[in-house]
Amino acid sequence: MTNPYVSELVNRFSVHQNREEADRMSQYMRRQFLYFGLRAPQMREITKLFLKDKGYPRLENLSDCIFQLYALPERELQIAALYLMDYKIKEQPDITDIETIEYLITNKSWWDTVDHIAQNHAGVYFKKFPEMIRVYSEKWLQSDNIWLKRTAILFQLKYKEETDEELLFSILSRSIGTKEFFINKAIGWALREYSKVNKEAVIAFIYKYDEQLANLSKREGLKWLKSRELI
């Protein structure tokens, strides 16, 4: 039975449905998902007003609302589920949240959800429960699921000076040597962000693994430094 909170949010989105925009958005995402046709700023505004009116679900209903929203076909509702998970992880964290995080990563997976989950769910979760980092980063790296691997690469993206450099470079060194675009892009992104903290370490890593690193990873990894003429 659909939670009334979920039903109300679905109604708020559906009122603003734009079929032409929905078709364009679906085409951009390779026809993998259906859309209401709400652009990100509009969706955020609708969600903001909804939360102002209704607040967040009670703790005992929060996880159920997340799963119900994520099960619905429109991508905007799946993104809304991630917004509720943002709140869950920050305000009402539980060590078992990692199970929900894994579910969200491995279901209806694409870069738009996975990149949000990696930074805002896995990244925040591991700061609250650091004892879980080694277990799950290892598990994800050994998985055949590229989205779990991408999350392992990206979860420290916002850590800046708090980045575990040894762990980061260990994960990256074990992830190179693939032709998978989403992994090579993630490696470059992780290197680029960390270059803002320790450019020497990133340059040294790229030099050390020059032959194994994809050109995409090297190009992305050095982009920020080159744009500021730091190398």
Overall description:
With 231 residues, the chain is an all-alpha fold. Helices cover 70% and strands 0% of the residues. It contains 13 helices and no strands. Helix 7 crosses helix 9. It is globular and about 55 Å long. It starts with a helix and ends with a helix. The model has no long low-confidence stretch (mean pLDDT 96).
Task: Provide mean pLDDT, rounded.
Answer: 96
| DSSP E strands, number | 0
Rg over alpha carbons: 19 Å
Order of helices and strands: HHHHHHHHHHHHH
In terms of per-residue confidence, which ranges show pLDDT below 50 for 5 or more consecutive residues?
Answer: none
Structural class of the secondary elements?
mainly alpha
Distance between the termini: 58 Å
Number of helices: 13
**Proportion of residues in extended strands:** under 5%
Largest sheet: none
Helix content: over 70%
- The rough form would be described as globular
Organism: Bacillus salitolerans
InterPro entries: ARM-type_fold, DNA_alkylation
Protein name: DNA alkylation repair protein
